[in-house]
Amino acid sequence: MAQYEIDPWDDTIPRELKGIGGWLLLPLLQLVATPLLIIASLSGRLKAHPPAAAFHAMAGHPLFLALTSVVFVLMLAQLLFGLFCLVQLFRKKAKLPRLMTIWYGLGIAASIFAAIQFALDPDMFGKVVDATATSGGLKLSTTLLLLWNGFFIVYFDVSKRVKNTFVR
Questions:
Q1: If DSSP states are collapsed to H, E and C, what string results for the chain?
Q2: What is the pTM of this model?
Q3: 156 vs 160: CA distance, rounded Å
Q4: What is the pLDDT along the chain (168 residues), one digit of tens a residue?
Q5: How many Cα atoms are found within 13 Å in the side-chain-facing hemisphere of 134?
């Protein structure tokens, strides 16, 4: 074999996991798709209610009003921070693993607060936020989001590909 050819089956050649590939493609796809999903969710939360009727409905539940505000702020923060992380991902900045951990944490917090908001008053949640929400559906989506985000928080902390691509 010529010296410039590389045998793909030769195990003596060190192969380093580096670059945006493998499992790292899933967070990339999520960073691209999540802003669209958050914008759709935020627009759904700002349904066309008469302002007085919406405020009157929530005024009887100050905790529900506070949770609505917290979820709205967390989703907006996740939207803006996700766009910032997307730029940092393509620039291959060393701080990206920590930024992604924060971004996934924002998603977990928003999901937990939305679940608490639903548990507080399911009828009010249906009137103000989402009429199609069900207890089982919200539990399932919150659980899946916790597992997904938890997996990628650990992935960004221990992955060799992430360390070789961003940290070193």
A1: CCCCCCCCCCCCCCCCCCCCCHHHHHHHHHHHHHHHHHHHHHHHHCCCCCHHHHHHHHHCCHHHHHHHHHHHHHHHHHHHHHHHHHHHHHHCCCCHHHHHHHHHHHHHHHHHHHHHHHHHCHHHHHHHCCCCCCHHHHHHHHHHHHHHHHHHHHHHHHCHHHHHHHHC
A2: 0.78
A3: 9
A4: 455 565 556 555 556 777 777 788 899 999 999 889 888 877 766 665 556 666 676 667 778 888 888 988 998 999 999 999 999 988 888 899 999 999 999 999 999 998 888 888 887 777 766 666 677 778 888 899 999 999 999 999 998 888 888 876
A5: 3
- Residue matched to tokens 């060190």: 14
Q: Which two tokens stand for residue 101?
A: 């951990």
At 131, list the tokens.
């009429």
Which tokens hold the place of 122?
A: 């399911």
Q: In one letter, which amino acid is 46?
A: L
**What residues have CB less than 8 Å from 104, skipping those under 6 apart?**
149, 150, 152, 153, 156
114 touches 54 (CB < 8 A) = no
Dihedral sign, Cα of residue 153, residue 154, residue 160, residue 164: positive
